[in-house]
Write a structure and sequence with these properties.
heterodimer, A: alpha/beta, two-stranded antiparallel ribbon, 10 helices, 11 strands, B: alpha/beta, 16% strand, binds zinc ion
C-alpha cells in the first residue's frame, strides 16, 4: 500500500516532494504546485513550463509540424565549447532538436497555428531553425486562414550563428507583417523572459500582445542597462506590469485564464 | 598616400608610420647636406606602400573593427553632403522628439530625388554626446519609419547608411518601447516596394543596425563590420571574459568579406588604402557610383518584381538541414 503510494508520487512529482519558490522562498507541496499550473499560491510567481506542459494547459490537441528542420554549425563557431557540442548538450537536456516547436493546436473546435519557444534550449535563442519554423507556420496560417499564436521566452538571437541569426529578425518580422496585412490575427504571448532579438522582432508585432505576470520583457537585459547608465533600475522595471503601464502590451494574463482568453479572442475575431 | 603626423594611428599602422618618418628624416638630411638621396627615398616610399597594402590585406576582424570605429571615419552626414547635390533634412518622429542619432531627409542625386537616412555618430566628445554615440532611442526608429513611409508614398528610392554600436540600452529607451520600435521598423522596411539600398559604412551593431537595413540590396564598406552582437559583448557572455574580444570578432564572422561569403550582403565597396578616412573624396566617389548603379538596376525592375525579389531574399536567410 505504502509502496504503491510512493510509486504514484514519484511519477507525478518530478523533482521532489517540496519545491522552494524562488520569489517568496516558501516551500510548496510540489503536487499542489503542479495542480496550480506551476504558479505559487503564496506570491503568484509563475514557474517556467516545459513546452509540453505549455501545450497541455493551452490546447485540447496539438499536431507538430515542420519537425525535420535541424540546426547546422555554419560558422564552425567555438567559444568555451564548439557550437555543435552545445547543440548536442541542449538536445540531451531537453530531448528536443531545436528551441521551438510549431504546429496546429485546437481549443474546442478552433484550429490555431502556434509556435512555442523552449527557453531550456540554448536560452530559447533564435537561430536559423527558429526563424525558418516561424516563417513556415506563419505562411501555413495565412494560407489556411488560421489565427496565429506565438509563445516567446528567449534571450534573443543565437550568437553562435552570427549574422545568420540576426537576419532571422528580418525574416520573421517580414512574414508576420505579411500575415497581418492579409487579415490574419496574430496574438503574441510573452513569457519570462523575452529579450533581445526576439522581443525586437516578431514577439512585439502581435495584433494583440499579452504577457504572463512578472515576466521580464525588454530589448536590453537589465545588467547591460545597469552597466551602461551606472544607476539602479526602478522597482519592477521591464516586468509585464511595468510594460502594461507604459503602453507596450494589452494585458497581463494569469496562466489559469490564458486558454480561455485565447479562445475568446480567436472567436471574437471571427475564427 | 598621405600620412598626417597628428593623426591617430591604429596599432597595426605603427611600422608604417615609422617607415614614413624615416623617409621624412632622409628628406631633411638630403636638404641639409645637399646629398642626392632620391633613389633611397623612392625605394623606401615603395616599401612603405607595399607594407601598407600587405598589412591591410591581412587585417584581423578586430583590426578592421578599429578602422570601422575610427573617429575620423566618414559619417552619414559626411556622405550625404558629399554624395548628394542638395538635401533637405527632415527631423522628428511627430510623437516625442527628434533623435540626433538618426538623421534623414530628401536629397537630390543627378536630378533624381531620393529619401536618405542613417545613424549619425559624432567626431569628438561633444558631438558624440549630442549624437549619443550613434545609439538611437525608439524615437530615432520612429523618425526612420516616417521617412520610409514618405519614400513609399512618393515612390522615391530609399538609401540608408548604417553606423551604430547598437540601439541605446537605457531606462527611457525601454519605457518608450525600444523593442517595438525596432521590430516595427524592420517589418515596415521589409514591406516597402520602392528601390532600396542599405550601406554599412562603419559599425553595424545588431538589431539597432538591422532596423534600417532591410533593403533590396545591402552593401558594405570593405572595413566596416556587421554583427549580431559586439565582439566585446559576445566575449563577456560566451567566452566569459571581455578580453577575448579578438577571438569573438573572428568567430562571429562580421567582416564584409565574411558576410559576402555567407550571402548576407550583396557587394563590398572598396576603401582607400588605410581606410575610408584616409581619402574621403575617393570614398564619396565610390559610394556615389554604388548608389547610382543600384538605383538604376532596381528602377529597371517593376514594383512587383522588386517585391518578389525582396521576399525571396529575406525568406532564404539562414542555414539549416532538412531531414
Ligand atoms: Zn512564491
Amino acid at each position: 500500500m505504502l509502496e504503491k503510494f510512493f510509486n504514484v508520487k514519484k511519477r507525478d512529482i518530478p523533482g521532489g516532494l517540496w519545491t522552494k519558490c524562488p520569489s517568496c522562498n516558501n516551500a510548496i507541496y510540489t503536487r499542489e504546485l503542479n495542480d496550480n499550473l506551476k504558479v505559487c499560491h503564496h506570491c503568484n510567481y509563475h514557474f517556467r513550463l516545459t513546452v509540453q506542459e505549455r501545450i497541455d494547459i493551452t490546447f485540447d490537441s496539438f499536431n507538430e509540424m515542420f519537425s525535420g528542420i535541424l540546426p547546422v554549425d555554419s560558422l564552425n563557431f567555438v567559444d568555451t565549447m564548439p557550437y555543435s557540442d552545445r547543440l548536442k548538450e541542449a538536445s540531451s537536456k531537453t530531448g528536443k532538436e531545436e528551441a521551438i516547436l510549431v504546429g496546429i493546436g485546437t481549443i474546442a473546435d478552433k484550429q490555431i497555428a502556434a509556435g512555442i519557444i523552449d527557453f531550456d534550449f540554448v536560452g530559447g535563442s533564435m537561430g536559423s531553425v527558429v526563424g525558418e519554423k516561424i516563417f513556415r507556420i506563419t505562411n501555413y496560417a495565412r494560407e489556411n486562414k488560421f489565427p496565429l499564436v506565438l509563445f516567446s521566452s528567449s534571450g534573443g538571437a543565437r550568437m553562435q550563428e552570427g549574422m545568420l541569426s540576426l537576419m532571422q529578425m528580418a525574416k520573421t518580422s517580414m512574414v508576420v507583417g505579411k500575415y497581418k496585412e492579409m487579415g490574419g490575427l496574430y496574438i503574441s504571448v510573452l513569457l519570462h523572459p523575452t529579450t533581445g532579438g526576439v522581443s525586437a522582432s516578431f514577439a512585439t508585432l502581435g495584433d494583440i500582445i499579452v504577457a504572463e505576470p512578472g515576466a521580464l520583457i525588454g530589448f536590453a537585459g537589465p545588467r547591460v542597462i545597469e552597466q551602461t547608465i551606472r544607476q539602479k533600475l526602478p522597482q519592477g522595471f521591464q516586468r509585464s506590469e511595468y510594460l502594461l503601464e507604459h503602453g507596450m502590451i494589452d494585458s497581463v494574463v494569469e496562466r489559469k485564464t490564458l486558454k480561455e482568453t485565447l479562445k475568446k479572442l480567436v472567436t471574437w475575431h471571427g475564427y | 598616400m598621405a600620412i598626417d603626423k597628428n593623426e591617430q594611428y591604429i596599432d597595426f599602422e605603427k611600422p608604417i608610420v615609422e617607415l614614413y618618418n624615416k623617409i621624412e628624416e632622409l628628406k631633411r638630411a638630403s636638404a641639409e647636406t645637399g646629398e642626392d638621396m632620391n633613389g633611397e627615398i623612392e625605394a623606401l616610399q615603395q616599401r612603405v606602400e607595399n607594407l601598407y597594402r600587405v598589412t591591410m590585406k591581412d587585417l584581423t576582424p578586430y583590426q578592421r573593427l578599429q578602422i570601422a570605429r575610427h573617429p575620423k571615419r566618414p559619417t552619414t552626414m559626411d556622405l550625404i553632403s558629399g554624395v548628394f547635390e542638395d538635401w533637405f533634412e527632415m527631423r522628428g518622429d511627430r510623437l516625442y522628439r527628434d533623435d540626433p542619432a538618426i538623421i534623414g531627409g530628401i536629397a537630390k542625386l543627378s536630378g533624381i530625388s531620393v529619401v536618405v537616412l542613417g545613424h549619425q555618430k559624432g567626431n569628438d566628445t561633444k558631438s558624440n554626446v549630442y549624437r549619443n554615440f550613434g545609439m538611437p532611442y525608439p524615437e530615432g526608429y520612429r523618425k526612420a519609419m516616417r521617412l520610409m513611409r514618405h519614400a513609399q508614398k512618393f515612390n522615391l528610392p530609399l538609401i540608408t547608411f548604417i553606423d551604430t554600436p547598437g540601439a541605446y540600452p537605457g531606462i527611457e529607451a525601454e519605457e518608450r518601447g525600444q523593442s517595438n520600435a525596432i521590430a516595427e521598423s524592420i517589418c515596415l522596411m521589409s514591406s516597402l516596394s520602392v528601390p532600396s539600398l542599405a550601406i554599412v559604412i562603419g559599425e553595424g551593431g545588431s538589431g539597432g543596425a538591422l532596423a534600417i537595413s532591410v533593403a533590396d540590396r545591402i552593401a558594405m564598406f570593405e572595413n566596416s563590420v556587421y554583427s549580431v552582437i559586439s565582439p566585446e559583448g559576445c566575449a563577456s557572455i560566451l567566452f566569459r571574459d571581455a578580453k577575448f574580444a579578438n577571438e569573438a570578432a573572428c568567430a562571429l564572422k562580421m567582416t564584409s568579406y565574411d558576410l559576402l561569403g555567407l550571402d548576407i550582403i550583396d557587394e563590398i565597396i572598396e576603401e582607400p588604402l588605410g581606410g575610408a578616412h584616409r581619402d574621403k573624396e575617393l570614398t564619396i566617389l565610390k559610394v556615389k557610383e554604388c548608389i547610382q548603379r543600384n538605383i538604376k538596376n532596381l528602377t529597371n525592375l517593376s514594383e512587383e518584381e522588386r517585391k518578389i525579389a525582396k521576399w525571396k531574399k529575406y525568406a532564404s536567410m539562414g542555414k539549416y538541414s532538412s531531414k
